[in-house]
Amino acid sequence: MLLAPIVKLIRAYDSVEWEIFISEWQKGLNGYHAVKRLGSAGDHGRDVIGLCTPEACQGVWDNYQCKHYDAPLATPKACEDAGKIIFHAFRKVFTPPRRCVFVAPRGVTTELRDMLLNPDKFRAEVIKTWGTRVASKIEASKKHTLVGALAAYVDAYDFTGFDWATMDEILDAHRRTAYWATRFNGQLPPPNPGVTPATVVSEETVYVGKLLDVYAEAAGAPITCVGDLDGHGDWKKDLQRQRVKFFDAEAFMATYRDQTEPGTTESFSDQIFEAIEPSLTVPSPGLNRLTAALTVAGNTAPASVLTPQAKIGVRQGVCHQLANDDRVTWKV
Q1: Domains in the chain and their CATH numbers?
Q2: Range of lowest pLDDT (6-15, 50-59, 128-137)
Q3: What distances in angstroms separate CA 295 from CA 133, 204, 313, 326, one per listed residue?
Q4: Conformational region of residue 182, where left means phi above 0, alpha means psi within -120 to 50, and beta covers everything else
């Protein structure tokens, strides 16, 4: 997948769309009780937050500082935002976030990166520059100097929670969400490859049984189990080919079930079913019906964001998924 056009598009977002994009990324991650977008006046330094428990910001939570600038996020602004979060935690507006992650489409400067990788250096920088970068930026017309209890709180604050996310990390996670296909016009990542077990497993016994019925009818011999194929080399090879298609289809559906809108994978299967159903209405030997269905499925292009990623084998594998669900039968 070419990500360069997507990165270019994202960098053209305004600050609001950037926050929405980041909230989509977080909503797609596992582990959050809820994700909220707060970015507005009075958000106390919270743009997008991931809440880990029903206690919200009184419990465990993560903060995502969304900074959509035309240049990498630099140290002065990061110190200002870090100072705001620490100050409001000091005032008990919320408990300190578990993580405070800077997210900027052009990343962070080398200087800031090195400080975030060395939390003690970042702490020292925030403290050293508090008077010029933070004190007057927290509340309008007020100056909060770093003295007394506030100074002690900042000095003891856990700066290991401050971090930044790279564009690669953001895109890699976002494309696993159901928002990716809609936002980027169906540009889905490739599906995971299927892994075919060496022997038939319980989850595939139904469609395999239906294939054995086809082979028995075509061979004119009793074939009731996979072991009976030992005397029928061609059918034994064919079964293995069909099993590969089945597991490719299984992996395909598993890849995209959580990366697309609800019902997308089901609609893809339904359209394959609708395409092959006419070929199953004509009385004929099971092998003819199977061959016709696989041919039609391989040539079908469902109206779906999944279609560009669905190779012929996957589409044919959906036929075996349908057989496994008892929606189709080959030998009648």
Answers
A1: 4-183 (3.40.91), 202-324 (no CATH)
A2: 6-15
A3: 68, 21, 10, 20
A4: alpha
Neighbour count for residue 237 (Cβ, 10 Å): 11
pLDDT in tens, 136-160: 999 989 999 999 999 999 999 999 9
**Rounded to whole angstroms, how far apart are CA atoms 159 and 99?**
9
Which ranges constitute the DSSP H helices of 56-204? 75-90, 110-116, 119-128, 130-133, 148-156, 167-174, 180-183
The C-alpha angle with vertex 264 and arms to 200 and 298, in degrees rounded to 5, equals 55
- pLDDT for position 214: 96
Sole residue written with tokens 């707060």 = 38
Q: What is the pTM of this model?
A: 0.65
The chain-wide mean pLDDT, for the chain, equals 93
In the chain, DSSP finds a helix count (H) and a strand count (E) of: 14, 5
Task: Judge whether 51 and 105 are in contact, CB under 8 Å.
Answer: no
209-221 residue pLDDT tens: 999 999 999 999 9
Question: What is the Cα–Cα distance from 224 to 256, expressed in whole angstroms?
Answer: 35
Question: In which residue are the tokens 């958000």 written?
Answer: 43
What is the token pair recorded at 233? 């080399």
Q: Cα–Cα distance between 175 and 107 in angstroms, integer?
A: 19
Residue 118 amino acid letter: N
